[in-house]
Protein 1
Amino acid sequence: MAGSKWVTWTTWLVACVSYLVLVFVSHRSGGGGGGGPEARDHPARFFFNFTLNTGKAVVRKGAIVSNALGDILDVGEEAGVRERLKGSVIEAVDLEGKYVFPGLVDAHAHLIMGGSFLSQLDLRDATSRADFIERVRDRAANLEPGAWLIGYGFDERKLGEMPNAGWISQATPDNPVLILRADGHRALVNFYLLAMANITSRPDPLGGKIERDAGGSPTGILTDTAIAMVRSLQPKPSKGERKDSIMKAMAYANSMGVTMVSDMGTPAFAQSADECWSDLVDVWMEIAAQDELTLRVQTCVPLDLYDSLASFVEKNGDSLGMLSWGCVKEFYDGSLGSETALMNEPYEGTTNRGLRIHEDRAVLQERLANATGRGLQAIVHAIGDLAVDEASAILSAAGSRSKNPNRLEHVQHVSGSGALDRIRDAEIYAVVNPLHIQDDARTMLEKLGSVRSGKGRSFPFKSMLDRGVKIAFGSDWPLVAPLDPLGSLLESTSGRRHVPEEAVSREQGFRAITSNAAEAAGAKGLVGRLQKGQKCDFVVLDRDLLEVEEKPVVLHTFVNGVCRYSRRDI
Ligand SMILES: [Zn+2]
């Protein structure tokens, strides 16, 4: 179509991008091809003037056409795409010579919890007792008596010592205080809340621990399921508050270039099964039905709810607009930071081997098999090497009837290559967290010794790929790390904080935050690659993330061909 003429009509100002222009593509007689094309076939948007690096090929002058439903109709060299457009009237978006990649997918995050954390006391960078106490005092000063003070992110290593209830209780005589450790597996509470929950006279719950001093009094530190003993007293967030958390979390995700999240729900130790169910049917589904999602979300519920979920899927299917469900999540152990990750051998210098959350493995196996037998995707948290061995065996025995792969989350420490082979043979996806290296690398050697924290045993990304295990990256936001797939990619490829032999290639890391993460999130073929037939979810970066060392800046995020984020200062 050498003779086709492009006429810039006017600048199209929208809230998100200010460079949309309405362009008339010259018509052939008959306009859109006659016969009233359906929205599905009719081009609606033309994105042009960018470099597209698919990981296999680089297109210097790329173009994408999407329809009104957000499906990609065409992608490739701009000249060829224009030629195939023939005569259609559509909006054109000039991407100003920047770099386009498939929308980033975070395969493991907790969106409602994360959104609520955005307005809670953030103690991630508290580095001393005085600083910690000061921040709690400041926050408490504005609270009504009885109101809860919720915080998150403390790290005893940054603080130089483990905090206790004595630190914060003087500043908070009239308020329950609950502050989660950075990994969410440990919490600090004040004397007010210890008394309110009657902790002193209660035994350790199954799968959890009430830390006590030499005299037997609780110190204020609660571990894993013991956190539920105080969480259960917290006023439940209303539907409106939970929706508000989701809206905040989605805006944050879009700003990080994220177009899809596999949402693990609020952890079972933090709220009841009924509340998790309500998150799905009362909150997520309502937002999806009202078309307010700016992010594709797969949301999971605890394994406890498998029966309800399987019946729900049988009746209602497993998706609504950009929301999908049909996955169940369970914990097998705790975390390395809290020394509750379940290990084959004790932590260095101790007799502690961590925590097996389900002592009755036969019961867990039966429930997982029931869930997968009814077509649900099973997802199991396993961090320690023994947890990985046992959980992979249980998942393997449970099998799968789902179109989506069973998953092991974190898989941070493994007993050796045999463990990886078993994961591969059972076709289990390993959803791993490169950003957790930042948190754990400092103490891994001390807790596990050189062999267990070394090559092939801890954060074994490259070893996994070499043994044929499929991996995807998740952040676990808001626990431990930000919702930052680009950060995960850079961490996984650098090997700086961990053994260099476990660094993966840029292309391998890229797949772990795009196509592989999409597959783990049940969206294989839907998103993860910019190709015809997939959804028009993409991110615009200021540089080529497959080529450069520095972290690219997210300029724009498009979901279903609609701009959901633009950086303000460009
Ligand atoms: Zn998690």
Note: The domain at 111-231 is CATH 3.10.310.70 (Diaminopimelate Epimerase; Chain A, domain 1).
Protein 2
Amino acid sequence: GAEATVDALEPPHVRGLNDDQRAAVLAPVGATRVLAGPGSGKTHVLIGRVAHLIHELKTPPREILCITFTNKAARELRERLRDKIGDAAAREITAGTFHSVAARMLRRHGDRIPGIGRTGEFTIYDADDSKQIVQGVLVNKFGETKKTAQPGPMRNWISTSKSCVKHSVGLNGSHMLRALLDAHKPIPPMSHERFVECYDEYELGLRQANAFDFDDLLSATVAMLEMCPDVRSYYEHRWSQVLVDEFQDTSTTQYELIRKLSQPQGSVFVVGDADQAIYGWRGAEVANIRTQFDEDFKDVQT
Ligand SMILES: Nc1ncnc2c1ncn2[C@@H]1O[C@H](COP(=O)(O)OP(=O)(O)O)[C@@H](O)[C@H]1O
Ligand SMILES: [Mg+2]
């Protein structure tokens, strides 16, 4: 019938979508947030949106940035993009995790951050490397023995404190303790003083090793965009369209990074899990982010 004819004329990235998916893929350029259940086709919509940007709105693929959370999700995203828009275009798109995208930006421009004390050849410390540094601090500064030192909790507090602030560059241990407490993160009062000292020693250790930990990758990138207007202007032009999958998992620092990358034009398209956004373990933060998103990006399409 008539409907079948209309369907056949539709571009491939719109064909077969339900009404909600279609509305999201075709939403006007601006700030768009899609919340839907797990397995409902959110990543499918994000990929359809990329195809729409390229084929209908003539966005050069190299101006598109797609961010997700895990390496596995990033790999899957790149594969699905390739299937949808072809190998050549997919290769021009920047698609990766928050950490991989941030690391690339820092390798290129990170030495411009005032007082950062790292070169472009910095080392990336994973959770185990970080724990080693904390272990060293506990043994060398606090007289613990290698056997009894328990670096795990302290490392986690340091990491959590860094995800509670927009960026941690230039902030000392007492500031970070306040950030933890303000965010209602559990840290026993008897550990407050030690946290402050450990934090500062830990930062010194990283700096001396020309290293960033995982949290710093995000933090330093946010600081870079804040403190270096020319670098920020470069990335605003570099990526005119920012898309984020699994938005419900976004931390304060990650959100800040998205916000900085997608301004001033505010072209940002985020998809996330509606259920987790309400009941998830980071529910409070997500609620914050949802409200914040409405404030930061005018004319949000939901
Ligand atoms: N409108 C659609 N047409 C065809 N396949 C779809 C559609 N919506 C979702 N899918 C498929 O359903 C599966 C789950 O979708 P996905 O985008 O991964 O969900 P989510 O990201 O919400 O968990 C995928 O295999 C995807 O290709
Ligand atoms: Mg998905």
Note: The two ends are 32 Å apart (CA to CA).
